[in-house]
Write a structure and sequence with these properties.
The protein has 1255 residues and is of the alpha+beta class. It is 18% helix and 31% strand. Strands 19, 24, 27, 28, 29, 30, 31 and 34 form an 8-stranded mixed sheet that branches. A 5-stranded antiparallel sheet has the order 7-8-16-13-14, with no helix packed on it.
Length: 1255
């Protein structure tokens, strides 16, 4: 099992939750490992290894099938992060590199001669229960161990178990007799899970390189443990789980197991070294485990406890799981329901759509939304959703969602972005609510999903209470710190005490002790609970997923404990008893994963799992208990031994719950049938289904038929000069015949006679041939022998491409009365030529006919006939050109009329273009001859222009040439816009992958040709974005443009000014320029420039700072007058930051800043009461409203509330606090700025783009 000395170099690209890829190059020989962003040469006997980590998370459903598509995914990343470790200490590996799946089934395969690069995906070290074409990603395996952390320098390389230093195959070594094996479970029990204990005596005296345990049985399969006592060419113990009988198993075998391997600490059992993983074992991956399981120095150190009396104890916990054949499952037949196809990363959408579809009242309302037969599903959300629901109800196979996502205004790029189920639910329901207005189903969304709660603050010592009623469509429930749904509701209505520094300012009563909370006024018929599985970890500065155990009941009683969740105004006659309808599950980690749903469509005991296209019946345990999260512990096979249990974290857990109120379930789970569907929709969808069924039938019978495409003169007349200009015909637009393969060609000719009215004896068929110059021309007529064969045989002989089509040209000769006549016999001396006529004045090219000519003849002999075909005078002078090829470049050469056709190398199927020569003094033409016109046609490009301000909308189109230079393009755009100065046009290219404008515009004359402007890696776009500037682009490029918001000192107004100055200018120059544009409170007023970000002031720009590096794209530049009080600060005075803030009740009272921040001078000894007077005057807040404000000193987001008597300056002792914006005087009051009807989603993964539905 040695390695070849000519092992190719390889690169592994590790992408989170996506299959790894390996690229082999025969030319690479360097050996580097990227560590901390630096490349370090590695000296070892392993293959050259380079590891790169991409930071942009890819959806769990994205699957890369080719080198270009991988490049496409990588190119859409904004940057590469070379810092994060790529292969963890716990990454499981192959024990043998020669077992690597070079011919991994169901993936793209490298071929023998592919060079210099080829690739194949490597099965990721995670569970794959679905088909290989889609990856179902779990979070990376955990290491369950308690020893001290391993040094990062010992990070494990992605190296399989081959004897890496060996030059040739190594014989299997026999284990010494000292080893003793114990199987904890009897073989006859055939358990699905068991623990195997292997006691290895005289461990340090083992001489073999590797050692196998005895065979043990789990799940009906034979297993054994493989170890390398001195390491598999590493300074670690190497350990793997091996399929013991792999060499004798039948072809195509596979089995899946979750397992852990452990070296028992015989002194302190808690320090046992244990690592767990899972793997799909097969012939090429018959063992799996850890090359660097634990350092040999630890293992052989007697005081560590792993080797006691020279005995080592190894444990293997194995759980075998059944793998179901994904493709043989018929969801409709097995369950009565069908799934939804995944477009790339739309599993989150599929799970939500299935949930909404199985709320029949909602489905009925969607069916009753008004649509017309003239609507197109791709442009109408109601029609697209009706179509989708109808197909889910009546189709026998899984349903596509492309029409629906197109109706959202999404493109392919959007379909490969994974979003949050909760956010999509809200955005979609908002859209439907808006679309339902003014229709018979108006208000349905509110009737189903809207509930209300009351926020209250009630004083304890005085009779004062403030309440505010709010609506909700779903509730966000805490998971962390809560054992179940009831605990989350308890926390939701938990009363907060406002006392001490946090007293409430009540009208007329001043600061008072109070209690604050939320109670529910009413619950909706359909209750949607969003479980907060994702939250921000402030200590780690990242989003994390909460995988804690969290239980939810089958029946949820929200009237429990005498209605503890209800407000006094709630209607107690409504019984708030709910039954569980659906459980939406997220499987994976914070950076990606997979969504699916468990649903009870009729609220019966039968649960169904909707996992994209696959629908299966499940029991309640699988739908509920197994979705609680937490850890799972496999049962011990031999409880008599004091062994640690085999535990692993469950990364699949409930993320959203849907409950239906018992008293409303008859109304909600109603009957929905075809009568609810508009007639035009039924007709349209039944027609689509019939067409789909016909296509399916044709596809199933395709091997029995041959498609014969017959091109005729009529097709050439119709197409040349309109649809095509090069070659002769588009074969997809000619008459086609579907003929059984065994049919004789003679019978086919009779069919042609019947269909086209051409007698059999008048038909002569020519075969087409693809030439080496990539043109496609009639090559030769069929011989009598060929016409005597069957259609199928003729297709196989003539078609080397081996597809199901036979392409023919039908030659029909016409007599004097324009009726078909039998064609004369063709001699070897005759050549069939096709003729096109070009008119340079009209810039038109058209087909005029074909002629047989003698090879020894000359063009002069046919000039009269050509003039007749063109409608010219018989003696008209004409020029001839041969159209030779058009890819990659046009080749069209002049034909010498004095040479013979043979001397001009003309043959059957060649094309002659002719024209009248232009006379001197005639009108000047853009394209005076055939070659120049064909060059123009070949390079012309219709470009769709969009305003950069409206990047989704085509505004106008222009026909340009790919050879146009930069000036040509902007001149045409300026001309279309009636703009005198083309240099004021600025262009931006299109990103073909993101379907967005590129971040940087095109510099003035920064590209040579239009083809360069439209190129994006290996693709060409037809979209350009434009801006009309107020100054010429060359001048603008020498300037720095800043947008500055000027805040007037005395008026409540903010005006945005665009400042353009040379790049070497300073902030002082900006202020001087601004003074000429704004109204100052007095002529001597001084200005300053501030950097404001998220409602905080981060910087006062020095007047001498250069503006070239100031970025106003992500934060606001604010200019304001410097108040007089700030100019004469005393030694004890302080200039402090003052910000507005509120507390987000849905995010654990997290501080949220809003509004305009400002500076304030505080004097020594000044109390809060005195400061408040100045703040109220500055902000001009009415007394009534200002009395409700609270004031606090905030440091790093934590408020300390102040009393009127507090001296404010004592809180701000230092002037030079780093990050002064994090210590500020906070003004707590409600944010009155407009908000969405739903609360902003704080539960979205940080990497996701917001969900948008454009239409």
């Amino acid at each position: 099992m040695g390695l070849s000395t000519r092992a190719p170099a390889y690169v592994t690209i590790v992408t989170p939750f996506l299959s790894h890829f390996i690229f082999f190059s025969q030319n690479q020989s360097l050996n580097y490992k990227l560590i901390g962003g630096q490349a370090h040469k590695i000296i070892s006997s392993v293959k050259p290894h380079k590891t790169i980590s991409s930071v942009k998370p890819l959806s769990s459903d994205a699957y890369v099938t080719s080198w270009p598509s991988l490049i496409k995914l990588l190119m859409t990343n904004e940057r590469w992060n070379m810092k994060s470790p790529c292969v963890s200490q716990d990454t499981p590996q192959f024990s043998s590199f020669l077992d690597y799946p070079v011919n991994y089934p169901n993936y793209p395969q490298p071929h023998q001669n592919q060079s210099p690069f080829f690739f194949f995906p490597i099965k990721p070290h995670v569970l794959h229960l679905s088909p290989p074409i889609k990856s179902r990603h779990q979070s990376p395996p955990m290491t369950l161990m308690t020893p001290p952390p391993i040094d990062p320098e010992e990070e494990e390389m992605l190296v399989p178990h081959s004897e890496l230093g060996a030059e040739g195959p190594q014989p299997m070594e026999v284990a010494p007799a000292e080893s003793v094996s114990v199987v904890d479970a009897p073989v006859v029990d055939d358990p699905p899970s068991a623990r195997f204990t292997w006691t290895i005596e005289n461990f340090s005296r083992l001489t073999g390189k590797k050692l196998y345990s005895d065979v043990f049985f789990v799940g009906g399969y034979k297993w054994r443990v493989l170890i390398f006592p001195k390491g598999n060419n590493v300074d670690h113990l190497s350990m793997y789980l091996d399929v013991a009988d792999a060499s004798t198993l039948p072809y195509g075998w596979s089995r899946y197991a979750q397992f852990s391997l452990a070296v028992v600490n015989q002194i302190h059992s808690k320090l046992t070294m244990r690592k767990d993983t899972q793997h799909q074992f097969n012939a090429r991956e018959s063992d799996w485990g850890f090359t660097s399981f634990m350092p040999l120095s630890e293992l052989y150190e007697p005081t560590r406890g792993y080797l006691l009396n020279d005995t080592c104890i190894v444990e293997a916990d194995v759980a075998v799981r059944k793998v179901v054949d994904y493709w043989s499952h018929d969801s409709k037949k097995e369950t009565g329901y069908v799934g939804l196809k995944n477009q790339g990363a739309t599993c989150y959408m599929n799970s939500l759509l299935q949930t909404l579809y199985h709320i029949p009242y909602f489905r009925k309302a969607v069916y009753h939304m008004p649509t017309t037969e003239n609507d197109m599903p791709s442009g109408s959300i109601p029609l697209a959703l009706q179509s989708l629901f109808y197909k889910l109800q009546y189709s026998d196979t899984s349903v596509a969602t492309k029409e629906l996502t197109k109706s959202f205004g999404w493109d392919t790029y959007d379909s490969f972005l994974q979003h949050d189920v909760q956010e999509l639910n809200r955005v979609l329901c908002e859209k439907l609510e808006d679309k339902m207005k003014g229709t018979v189903v108006e208000g349905t969304i509110q009737q189903l999903f809207e509930g209300h709660h009351m926020n209250y603050i009630e004083c304890i010592n005085v009779d004062y209470k403030s309440t505010r009623k709010e609506s909700f469509y779903d509730l966000q429930l805490d998971v962390k710190g809560c054992r179940d749904v009831y605990a989350s509701f308890d926390k939701y209505v938990e009363v907060e005490r406002l006392e001490g520094d946090n007293k409430y300012h009540a009208e007329q009563y001043g600061l008072q002790d109070a209690k604050k909370g939320v109670l529910f006024t009413d619950f909706p018929p359909v209750l949607q609970l969003q479980l907060k599985r994702f939250e921000y970890d402030f200590m780690r500065d990242t989003m994390v997923k909460i995988n804690d155990r969290y239980e939810f009941p089958l029946q949820l009683d929200l009237d429990r404990e005498n209605g503890k969740y209800l407000s006094p105004q709630a209607d107690r006659t409504v019984r708030n008893l709910y039954t569980l309808h659906s459980v939406l599950v997220h499987s994976g980690g914070v950076h990606g994963g997979h969504y699916y749903a468990y649903i009870r469509p009729t609220l019966s005991d039968q649960w169904l799992k909707f996992d994209d296209e696959r629908v299966t019946k499940e029991d309640m345990k699988r739908a509920m208990d197994e979705q609680y999260g937490g850890e799972e512990e496999l049962p011990q096979a031999n409880p008599g031994f004091n062994n640690s249990p085999f535990k692993f974290t469950k990364y699949s857990n409930a993320y959203m719950l849907v409950y239906i109120r018992e008293s409303d379930k008859e109304k909600i789970i109603c009957n929905v049938d075809e009568k609810d569907v508009a007639e035009h929709l039924r007709i349209r969808l039944k027609k689509e289904q019939e067409e789909k069924e016909q296509k399916r039938k044709e596809k199933a019978e395709a091997h029995l038929y041959t498609i014969i495409k017959v091109a005729r003169d009529e097709n050439l007349h119709e197409q040349i000069g309109k649809n095509i200009f090069f070659d002769l015909v588009d074969h997809d637009k000619v008459r086609s015949f579907r003929i059984q393969k065994q049919t004789s060609f003679a019978l086919f000719k009779e069919e042609v006679a019947k269909e086209l009215g051409i007698p059999v004896q008048c038909q002569r068929f020519w075969l087409w041939a693809k030439r080496q110059n990539h043109t496609y021309r009639p090559n030769r007529p069929l011989t009598p022998l060929e016409e005597a064969q069957s259609v199928g045989h003729l297709r196989e002989v003539s078609n080397k491409a081996n597809n199901a089509e036979l392409k023919l040209f039908l030659e029909v000769e016409l007599g004097q009365n324009s009726q078909p006549v039998p064609p004369p016999a063709k001699t070897k001396e005759e050549i069939l030529l096709f003729f096109k006529l070009y008119d340079p004045l009209k810039e038109e090219l058209r087909y005029v006919g074909r002629l047989f000519v003698k090879a020894t003849g000359k063009p002069t002999e046919i000039l009269t006939k050509l003039n007749e075909l063109a409608g010219f005078a018989s003696n008209e002078e004409i020029e001839l050109f041969e159209e030779i090829k058009f890819e990659p470049n046009v080749m069209c050469e002049h034909v010498d009329k004095k040479l013979t056709f043979r001397a001009s190398q003309l043959e059957d199927g060649d094309i002659i273009c002719f024209q009248k020569p232009l006379q001197t003094g005639t009108v000047k033409c853009r394209y005076p001859d055939v070659p120049s016109f064909l060059e123009y046609v070949h390079n012309r490009q219709v470009v769709r222009f969009r305003s950069l301000e409206r990047p989704k909308e085509d505004e106008f189109s222009l026909e340009l040439s790919k050879l146009n230079n930069y000036d040509d393009v902007v001149e045409r755009v300026a001309s279309h816009l009636n703009l005198d100065d083309p240099s004021k046009i600025r262009l931006t290219s299109h990103n073909c992958y993101s379907q967005q404008p590129k971040p940087q515009p095109i510099k003035y004359r920064g590209v040579e040709h239009l083809s360069d402007i439209l190129a994006h890696y290996n693709q060409t776009s037809d979209i350009l974005y434009y801006e009309v500037l107020d100054i010429p682009l060359p001048e603008l490029q020498g300037l720095k443009t800043l947008k500055v918001a000027f805040h007037h000192a005395t008026k409540d107004e903010v005006v945005i000014h665009t400042i353009r100055l040379p790049k070497q200018s300073t902030v002082g120059d900006v202020i001087n320029d601004l003074k000429t544009k704004v109204e100052l409170s007095h002529k001597d007023a001084e200005l300053r420039l501030l950097e404001v970000f998220y409602h905080k002031i981060y910087k006062i720009f020095p007047l001498t700072e250069k503006i070239e590096n100031i970025n106003d794209q992500y934060w606001t530049l604010r200019a304001e007058e410097i108040p007089e009080e700030e100019k004469d600060l005393g030694p004890q005075d302080r200039l402090i930051h003052v910000y507005h803030f509120t507390k987000d009740t849905s995010q654990n009272q997290q501080v949220q800043n809003f509004g305009e921040p400002f500076f304030l001078v505080i004097r020594e000894g000044e109390t809060l009461a005195e400061v408040k007077i100045r703040i109220q005057k500055k902000l001009q807040v009415p007394d009534e409203e200002f009395s409700k404000w609270k004031f606090a000193f905030l440091s790093l987001g934590r408020p300390t509330y102040l009393q009127d008597s507090d001296v404010v300056s004592t809180r701000f002792q230092r002037r030079d606090v780093y990050g002064a914006w994090e210590q500020y005087l906070g003004l707590e009051h409600s944010d009155n700025t407009s908000k969405r009807s739903y609360a902003a989603n704080q539960n979205r993964h940080t990497f996701e783009k917001p969900v948008r539905i454009y239409n």
